[in-house]
Specification:
This protein has 17 helices and 9 strands. It is α+β, with helices and mostly antiparallel strands. The longest helix is centred in the C-terminal third of the chain and has 28 residues.
């Protein structure tokens, strides 16, 4: 048995996450949104929540088998109450198949629907029977129908907005009063995106009455992936190091290690000017001057002296004798992500991991600091170039081709691949072979696969999972058709 299969929990079933868990995550999200809803919106949230409850109840696969058994018993009893002339059609009917206790809603409800039709005929046939037995029987049939359709504990159910011990704006107001006394907290706005960190823009006023903006970057448990700088305390140290090396970042102001204020440690930085382009799956069209600045900034990151990182969270990457061993360790770490043992078995993951281990480049290349998620979604820029590189939690030391390949992937359509490579070399970046670029094109798919399998396992097992985790868990398969194509391109580049 392969190492991957041996390391997997093959007893996990069904495919994760289940419909039940996705619906539960959606209900939790509605409850969170309801905290800021007005009366009209809250009424809509309540209606939506009631529908979600119904969908959750439909996931009780054993329910229809129980209803079926009750209905079948009532049919047998009802036939004894029906006048003789009416019993022949009932007795000659083909009985509906009993749904298994694992049947889905469509199969289970179809069988029950057939029995309800028979019970309707029986009730119609005994309408002239005024005995207590017949009256009691009809009441039982109606109660069965109520149990089928009226499973909610209350038709006046109202969604209960979830709230923390204190709203986030109140917690941050208290933080500024205690830790940043030179500024008056005015307001906050949640920034979009981010699977592992919670990012908030704070509007404040300094003692001179000037408007000032800060960004709060906090832990957001649970996290589907862990990296050397996942902890904000480690990420804060990395940001200070790269800023000292001349890389544009959002200037780090404070590290709050206490959980006293918002329940998690967090970083406070300035708000850098500029905008991002697109998401991790691709970018909107980017001006050529901005892409060139991104490339030149990346070359600057790769030129940072590794000696400055010897006391950083990345020191373990300096112990490898060759870049090939460094890259193999990178594959091993991705396969050792903490949620993978609970994830579904994946032939795609087995294929990617084994190919990457077997085809590492043996080129003698000097390793560099890598950002690892260096795409337009993590870079702020203005018309004249990059203003800040964001989100350093995934950084490591390794093959610079990893960053360059990903930047090429995420800026496709904006500039030519050849231009990116030329700008990179002119800015001091070391030569990168076509094979290494193609190798890391494949590696990107490993990251996507691990990340989304981990999200599926997390959504299934952890009630704190967010709607972003649920979205990722149902979209991970989108890149599967690219695997063999990218492998073929890499193998062709090596020949």
């Amino acid at each position: 048995m392969s190492q991957f299969v041996a390391a997997s929990d093959l007893s996990v079933a069904p495919i994760q996450p289940t419909s039940k868990r996705l619906l539960e995550v959606l209900r939790t999200t509605l409850a969170r949104l309801a905290t800021s809803a007005g009366p009209n919106e809250l009424r809509l949230f309540t209606s939506a929540d009631l529908v979600l409850q119904e969908l959750l109840l439909r996931e009780r696969s054993e329910f229809f088998a129980q209803i079926y058994d009750r209905a079948q018993t009532l049919i047998e009893r009802g036939c004894a109450l029906v006048p003789g002339a009416h019993t022949a059609p009932l007795n000659s009917r083909e009985p509906a198949a009993r749904p298994s206790e694992q049947a889905n809603y469509a199969a289970g409800s179809s069988s029950v629907h057939e029995l309800l039709a028979v019970l309707s005929e029986i009730v119609e046939s005994v309408r002239g029977n005024r005995t207590p037995e017949a009256s009691h029987y009809i009441a039982e049939v109606i109660e069965l129908e109520r149990a089928l359709h009226g499973r909610h504990p209350s038709q006046t159910h109202s969604i209960t907005p979830q709230s923390a011990a204190a709203p986030l704006d109140e917690s941050l107001r208290a933080y500024f009063s205690a830790r940043m006394k030179d500024f008056e907290f005015l307001s906050m706005r949640q920034l979009p995106g981010g699977y592992t960190k919670n990012t908030v823009l704070v509007h404040a006023r300094d003692r001179s009455g000037n408007d000032v903006y800060f960004v709060i970057r906090a832990e957001r448990p649970p996290s589907q992936l862990r990296f050397d700088a996942s902890d904000v305390r480690d990420e804060f140290q990395i940001i200070e190091l790269v800023e000292a090396a001349g890389i544009p970042v959002a200037h780090p102001i404070r590290l709050e290690e206490s959980r006293e204020f918002i329940g998690q440690p967090f970083i406070v930085t300035t708000r850098a000017a500029g905008r991002t382009y697109g998401a991790h799956t691709g970018a909107s069209e980017i001006p050529e001057a901005v892409v060139r600045s991104m490339v030149e900034t990346l070359a600057g990151i790769h030129r940072i002296a590794l000696g400055s990182l010897r006391s950083s969270p990345l020191t373990s990457w300096l112990q490898h004798d060759t870049l090939a061993e460094n890259t193999k360790e990178n594959v091993r770490r991705w396969r050792a992500q903490p949620w993978l043992p609970k994830a579904d078995a994946s032939p795609a993951l087995a294929r990617l991991a084994s190919w990457l281990m077997d085809n590492v480049s043996n080129e003698n290349i000097t390793p560099t600091l890598l950002h690892v998620d260096y795409g337009p979604h993590n870079i702020l820029a203005e018309a004249d170039g990059v203003t800040a590189v964001l989100d350093w939690e995934t950084c490591r030391i390794g093959d610079p081709a990893e960053d360059v390949a990903y930047l090429i992937q995420t800026t496709q359509g904006s500039v030519a691949r050849e231009d990116i490579l030329a700008w990179y070399h002119r800015a001091g970046g070391a030569p990168i072979s076509e094979y290494r670029l193609r190798y890391f094109d494949v590696f990107t798919l490993l990251k996507f696969t691990v990340g989304t399998l981990a999200m599926a396992a997390l959504v299934q097992a952890d009630a704190r999972a967010s709607i972003l985790h649920a979205e990722g868990a149902v979209l991970w398969w989108a890149h599967l058709p690219d695997i063999e194509t990218r492998i073929r391109h890499a193998e062709a580049a090596r020949r």
